[in-house]
């Protein structure tokens, strides 16, 4: 089997109401946009994948990467990943192309991808993840709604100019819903310049927030420091007891190796569409297992992105959520 054509289409649909992402303050989103990847083969099997898009930035991506892919066997994922790694030097985020190879492989084998990767489970617990900053009453209403849907845990966003305001929300949620699992995402791992006023936390602030969350019984604190602050994470992990999570925007195996070897995190959170593809996410899961760490992939892109990361989650044992 050989890849014969590569196409990338920009798709978008209007949201019912504007969305105000905590990680991009002042940048309300009225559409959800994605780059749909389509790989054609000489045996009539088509593979699909998708990655996040803001506009026409990937309009020529298909033409750019086609010379790297056309004529190659889609089953040779490791070979193609190494080739795509060189293509990233041209300035594009292209790791969401790799899952389309697995779509082809799964269709050819007549099996879901998670079974081809190891096949550990076909069900997993889901938590409700909040993407916007909200005051106490609005957040309590939201948690009540998702609780009624059957969710047993919720992830809160901490990204206010004053982190004490975020803690007030977390305390209110814990008081109202004492048996609800709470995770917290500080969104300090990366930052887009010029968007928002919330200051990045230093180590002292991260320690203070983490200890407060320990008192609330939070399940984890996600990305309280910059994604490359390995020393800061190591010191933070030595000083607090709450599990630390991160990795959604870290790239490739070497960055996760540093996070693990320097003792930075308790929970690794790669995103298969951002961190290197499905095969890379599976390798990172193995890295976590070898070091007795948990694995909880990130996903916040689109429906295909969720389905892609679910395949990895279904293949590994150390993944609770």
Structural overview:
By secondary structure, the protein is α/β, with parallel strands linked by helices. It has two domains: 108 residues, 2-Layer Sandwich (Enolase-like, domain 1); 186 residues, TIM Barrel (Alpha-Beta Barrel). Helices cover 38% and strands 18% of the residues. The strands form two sheets. A seven-stranded parallel sheet has the order 4-5-6-7-8-9-10, covered by helices on one side. Strands 1-2-3 form a three-stranded antiparallel sheet, sandwiched between helices. Helix 9 links the parallel strand 8 and strand 9. Helix 5 packs across helix 6. The two termini are 36 Å apart.
Task: Furnish the topology, listing elements before pairings.
Layout: E1 3-19, E2 29-41, E3 46-52, H1 61-69, H2 77-87, H3 98-109, H4 113-116, E4 128-129, H5 136-149, E5 153-157, H6 163-176, E6 181-185, H7 203-215, E7 220-222, H8 230-239, E8 244-246, H9 252-261, E9 267-268, H10 278-290, E10 294-295, H11 303-313
Helix pairs in contact: 5-6, 9-10, 10-11
Rounded average pLDDT: 94
Strand order of the largest sheet: 4-5-6-7-8-9-10
State the order of secondary-structure elements, H for helix, E for strand: EEEHHHHEHEHEHEHEHEHEH
Largest sheet: 7 strands, parallel
Outline type: globular
Please tell me the CATH architecture of the largest domain by its name.
Answer: Alpha-Beta Barrel
Seen as an oligomer or otherwise, the chain set is single chain
Weakly predicted, low-confidence segments: none
In CATH, the topology of the largest domain is named: TIM Barrel
Radius of gyration: 20 Å
Which range does the strand content fall in? 15-25%
Instruction: Note the total helix count.
Output: 11
Compute the number of structural domains.
2
Helix residue percentage? 25-40%
CATH superfamily name of the largest domain? Enolase-like C-terminal domain
Distance linking N and C termini: 36 Å
Q: Structural class of the helices, strands and pairings?
A: alpha/beta
Which CATH class of the largest domain? Answer: Alpha Beta
Q: How many strand units?
A: 10
